[in-house]
């Protein structure tokens, strides 16, 4: 699948549920309204859509949410999609998770061919963790990480850089990830969805974070890529890989290879734009995948050039009204 700007679309992220067992302050409002179950694609329907994408050339599938591991019977979807790994059609099946349920599922995920997981973790301080996630318990996440290690899954920690929240902890995160053998990526907070707080109060550009890190660590740029938007360096002192995802200060749209499916079957061709394609209707219209595949090709044909997020004092509205939990990360 080639979009109008000549970019090959080889990566699909699938939000399998909009529900989450955390309420991270930069991601969701405290009183979120979730989708009615009837609007949500069944696991069989999710499999059909993912498989249609794989037939059209998608090589990497990432399950996300909400929290993917709180969707009932989610392992059935991993299990069925693993057939595409076995056939060689798919190169990677993975997920982004808050790790709260990894203790239960890490081994089964590994058994389904998952090799690495992205774990979202912004702090190592239990009180701060509870304040950020509103509902989360750091102990449970640490148990999940231990289970991932035990199952042989490679872990990448994703931390959102939050001014006044974890800006005093970045050295500790770098050192801890180095000790544990985890890759670490910092992410700039994006203006997605009403959260009842001013984004400008949370936003900490990664150029500033990197300058702060460079006072303590030797950061050597490397060419390593995972198919996602992070740019990596090696931390000389720990030997660990450190990534930066900078949707605000440096957008990476020129090399975008991704599209995102919500749990209701809406396909977003860009995280930061509102245009979307409904895949649920063509999916449910026929048992034959022809209408679905045609809808996918039409959608790819209007993938936009990129996003233009802005966070400043004058702009009160988010760039897009949907929360990150709708399209996932
Ligand atoms: N529940 C899973 C998790 O915690 O990783 C997957 C979904 S979560 C929405 C995916 C990622 O989006 C997390 O790393 C989270 O920190 C990040 N995220 C949420 N809202 C964000 C925002 N406004 N800006 C930047 N990253 C955000």
**Shape verdict:** globular
Query: How many angstroms does the end-to-end distance come to?
Result: 22 Å
Strand content: 15-25%
Order of helices and strands: EHEHEHEHHEHEHEEEEEEHHH
Helical element count?
10
In which order are the strands of the major sheet placed? 7-8-9-6-5-4-3-2-1-10-11-12
- Uncertain spans, ≥5 residues at pLDDT below 50? none
Number of beta-strand segments? 12
SSE class: alpha/beta
Mean pLDDT, all residues: 94
Bound ligands, named by name, code or SMILES: S-adenosylmethionine
What fraction, in percent, of the residue positions are helical? 25-40%
Radius of gyration: 19 Å
The main sheet comes to: 12 strands, mixed
Characterise the protein shown here.
The protein is α/β, with parallel strands linked by helices. It is 30% helix and 18% strand. The chain has helices at residues 43-55, 74-87, 102-111, 126-133, 138-150, 170-180, 206-214, 280-285, 290-300, 324-327; strands at 11-15, 60-64, 92-97, 116-120, 154-161, 183-188, 219-221, 231-235, 241-245, 258-261, 266-268, 276-278. Strands 7-8-9-6-5-4-3-2-1-10-11-12 form a 12-stranded mixed beta sheet. Bound molecules: S-adenosylmethionine (SAM). S-adenosylmethionine (SAM) binds next to strand 3, strand 5 and helix 10. S-adenosylmethionine binds at residues 20, 26-27, 64-65, 67, 96-98, 120, 158, 160, 187, 189-190, 192, 324-325, 328-329.
